[in-house]
Amino acid sequence: MARSLPSTAGLLITAVTLAGAATAAPAAADSRADAPGHAQVQKALDQAVTDGGAPGMVAEVRDRRGRWFGSAGVADTRTGRERQPQDRFRIGSAAKPFTATVVLQLAAEGKLSLDDTVDKWLPGLVEGNDNDGGTITVRHLLNHTSGIFNYGNDKEEFAKFSGPAWLEHRYDAYPPEQLVKIGLRNPRSFEAPGDGFVYSNTGYILAGMIVEKVTGKTLAGEIERRIVRPLGLTGTYLPGKETKIRGPHPRHYSTLFATETDAKVYDVTDQSATTGWAAGGMVSTVGDLHRFVSALLRGKLLPPTQQREMFTMVKTGIKMPDGTWKDTWIPDTTYGTGVFSWELSCGVKVWGIGGAITGGFSFAMGTRDAEHMIATNVTIDQYGRHNSLDMSKTVLEAEFCPSGSQARSKMLPRSGM
Predict the structure, then answer these.
(1) What are the structural domain ranges in the chain?
(2) Mean of the per-residue pLDDT values for the chain?
(3) Are 5 and 416 in contact (CB under 8 A)?
(4) To which H or E segment does residue 398 belong?
(5) What would be the CATH architecture of the domain defined by 28-400?
(6) In terms of Cα–Cα distance, which of 104, 86, 97, 43 is closest to 364?
(7) What is the C-alpha radius of gyration for the chain, rounded to an integer number of angstroms?
(8) Residues 231, 295: contact at Cβ < 8 Å?
(9) What's the whole-model pTM score?
């Protein structure tokens, strides 16, 4: 499930002890010789493994000098296999911009409007707990301003998907309608649609359902037809009910939200993708994420009007009754429709996509003109003192910030990614 992220501290993985190992890709196009000068990124990858307990982490940089791939740790702690550039992995909420792009393309074709209400396409589905599908628009779903509760934060469901209970429920299949109902059985995050930003996977499940209602086809098929094939993506797809990853892939690991310093690490590679679906169920590669995000930043997938919609940003928080501001997502970010900007600790702003899922964190970020990009994946989700968000941000800052300017990121609140 594209999961809620609890605030925890002091988590140090000791069940997995690995030595950092830099690996060069076998293909010349992916070797360090193509784009030298990324020693700080390699150091950050190595530290994620040796200091942070990550089983393995990779990054691929693309800039005017070429392409560079680096990795540390292993793809499989049992066999010691090294990570490779073509490896596929679960990308969590980095699936959202794929869904958003399809919706925006449909808007460009006149088949729907971002001002359409949810009730227009899914009549009667969104109701209860002060939710009204007649006042929530497609735009509200895409930029997380709907106020609909994030189903990943539902206490009953979260209990199934944290700790050892996850092992019993890892293959549970969830129809999209069930995920929506889970979200709607909880109070709204704020009173009126548009009054604030609270990250909600439920909104993207609804967006995926609208795509299927408008087109009469599956969301997976529309992503394949509109994005994957035109861009020549070779390792990207939205699974159905299958629980294994197709093709070459690293193992995915998790502490299942345990906070103990000696938390056990579980292999969570095989799992149902239906718990994330349009909000976080996709699989991809670092190379594919580069191509996709570069196309988004450069306006290659959308006409100008819809491109402006995608990059119309909102602040990621809400104004409290006393007038103060409360961050509800990653601090120093703004959010568009599936994409976000992130001001790093050195003041540099990067743009792109990111996601977390049980088994890892993935980001693909870069300059607004896409001339300088990095994609990264760490195959563990952990949220304590050594947490996966910090590891990912450290890699980003190693590439985009002057040496020594990196600072620890703040923990994600319980709103998910």
Answers:
(1) 28-400
(2) 89
(3) yes
(4) helix 388-400
(5) 3-Layer(aba) Sandwich (3.40)
(6) 97
(7) 20
(8) yes
(9) 0.91
